[in-house]
């Protein structure tokens, strides 16, 4: 058993999925499993009887995705922390390869990526467009050469965890995934991507709401580099219009 790897799963009303996911995790080379539940109303709590060796943290309500991940990092003391969704979108059989890559490349963050060679997404067309558009904007705005910035399937080194738990003003919803990436990148932590196959959820409901998507675009747009980019683009269009106007009136 690999005593250096913990798995942290943030969960909100995911009882049916957790029931399927946890036995699959038992087949992987990991030492401990932490489920961080935010006051689910679907009886997730009953699972403590089915899986007595799993660590459950039941929080008082929806305290947010990123704060659940950070609580998991605080509770575990392993060298590597795997973060994955409860809904089986992230395949447990990819963990081993991601850990090997983290060790081989000395990465502080390995992102399970849909958008590099051999990565697969099963999202419907509109979600692919949104996701790829979000990634493009993130590249332009923060100059980070990562193809799948919004993926929640990640492996963090202990050093990255220690750093992140001190970041008190981290964005707490989905946009926190890119905030984390930006901060690790700015602080010279090594980030690599590993190709994974994202499976569409078949049980339970998505917690991704429209306001999360709006939040993402606001986060990116408020960045100074992005504002400069918009300013330069507008200025260029303005100059082209002036030149066209002057040329046309002179002819
Ligand atoms: N503890 C906790 N878990 C959350 C919260 N929001 C989402 N989650 C969990 O975080 C994971 C990711 O959420 P999903 O709803 O699967 O988001 P998604 O993968 O973008 O959406 P789908 O592709 O539709 O599944 C799931 O395991 C959720 O149960 C939260 O506020 N607190
Ligand atoms: Mg999901």
Describe this structure as you would to a colleague:
- The structure is a single chain.
- 45% of the residues lie in helices and 15% in strands.
- Helix 5 runs parallel beside helix 8 (210-221) and helix 5 (125-142) packs across helix 9 (224-250).
- The chain has a single domain (5-206), classed as Spore Coat Polysaccharide Biosynthesis Protein SpsA, Chain A (Alpha-Beta Complex).
- It has helices at residues 15-26, 47-50, 65-75, 95-105, 125-142, 158-164, 176-186, 210-221, 224-250; strands spanning 5-11, 32-38, 55-59, 80-83, 109-113, 154-157, 191-195.
- The chain has a seven-stranded mixed beta sheet with strand order 3-2-1-4-6-5-7, sandwiched between helices.
- The chain is of the alpha/beta class and 251 residues long.
- The protein contains nine helices and seven strands.
- Helix 1 links the parallel strand 1 and strand 2 (32-38).
- It is elongated.
- The site of guanosine-5'-triphosphate (GTP) has 20 residues, from strand 1, strand 2 and helix 3.
